[in-house]
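Dear colleague,

Following up on Tuesday's group meeting, I ran the structure prediction for the two-component complex that the binding team flagged. I've pasted the input sequences exactly as they went in, so you can double-check that nothing got truncated or mislabelled along the way. The structure tokens for the whole assembly follow below. Feel free to forward this to whoever is handling the docking comparison.

Inputs:
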Amino acid sequence: MIGFNYSLGLESYGRTLPPDWPGGFWWHWLVFTVIILAFVMTVLLGFVWFERRALGRMQARLGPNRVGPFGLLQPVADALKVLIKEDIVPSQADKIVHWLAPVVTLVPVLMIFAVVPFQDGALLVDLNIGLLYVVAVSAVPILGIFMAGWASNNKYTLIAAMRDVASVISYEIPVVLSLAGVVLIAGSLSLNQIVLTQNTPLILLQPLGFLIFFIGGLAEINRTPFDLLEADSELTAGFHTEYSGMKFALFYLAEYAEALALSALIATFFLSGWRGPFLPPWLWFLLKIVAMFFVIIWMRATLPRIRIDQLMALAWKFLFPLALLNIVVTAIEVLVWPEALPWGLIPVNIVVAGILVLFLSKKFTLGWGRIEV
Amino acid sequence: MALDILFWLLATVSVGAALAVVLLRDVFRSALSLVLCFLVVAGIYITLSADFLAAVQVLIYVGGIAILIVLAIMFTRDIQRGSPANRLRIPAFIMAILCFGVISFALVNTPWQISTLSPTIPTTPALADKLLGKGGFILPVEIAAALLLAVLLGAIALMREK
């Protein structure tokens, strides 16, 4: 019995903040921009430390523990080191594009947080096309990675950039289709509204959609096991080989910001966002984000990197049909049993997801580079 | 007033970016200017209260088409020489001027109907009704889907190993 006191929790929150808190359009804009930037940067520094310590623990070593208590100040020291490093631009590089690439990669990721609610109504803008906005904006950072790969004038960066485009274009489709199930159940594209309608966390009603979104999201942000574009045994350092100093740091930040965005979006779409009993909403939200990020680290420490043909086959032959089937099943459920939605459908959906995954796993074959019709 | 300033700003940037697409020698930079042009057009949609259209513009044009164009550029040989003009330069210029003249003439001489209604907020339910609801555009939407499927199948058939 999960989700038993969510509805009770909602009444006690009410709408805690008026839509234009703290009064006036520009104050609202200023305050929330500062809050979002501070939140993202602080959590990112925390994530860098957390990932290195957790990886160390999982690999039976210590991890950074010299700077500050438990090595907590290590990210600060790293940031300072990177700030004072020399910024090197290759002589044959396309200078303007080389300079623009880190910005184009980081800024859209930050823009995602504009529509993520921290508690009821506490967000920069409550767009009624929020989910579509997230999907649209998160498609832009690939372009920055592409620009970096091209402008560096280096074959390894170029190969890495092309791998990234191949994976992102493929995984974009199952990711967006898996979100269609969330929209069907929530009946809204606004992220705040999606959280408000989740009396039961959608991970129970959409187990399949959650799996597809999580796997596809990992592939889109290039985390292990999909980190083909940073495979240092094949590509030196991937698309940012020719970057140093602060520009490299921006790419590094963008990578972690994407991981944070993915965790925040999963928390919002599937884990009922800021809702939960007893604790304040923002703390629930943060806890869910950190839990999701821990799973991502865990996968990084556990799984080996997959090959490019496995990557493409997984997207097109496994996740894509699953996502389509998920939409069909969800649409039928929403149409036929609208009133039974919360309780009766949870076991049905979990069983359907299990059967579909098992069935398609049996059918799954690699094409070995050949195109079959 | 603020909207006017915004419009002229966006319009200038979009025309500048569009010109850069045609005039720049470096093909990759042309593609990037095209992306800028798409983004600015999305901005114009936002000032017209068409938020759904703006998001779709960014999603499809920036996230899909621009990426495909850049990918095509990377697969092109002799890319380092840029895009030099060939001997059809003058005829192409004349055709472009003619095309521009016809479009401008049509735009200026069309009696545009300006609605006095305030824009619908939120836009999504109304759009959904129009696209998928009764008496809406469900048939064209389905035809477009069938067309796209046919194109996909055609592309696969072309790619198939003989």
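The mean pLDDT of chain B is 86.

Cheers,
M.
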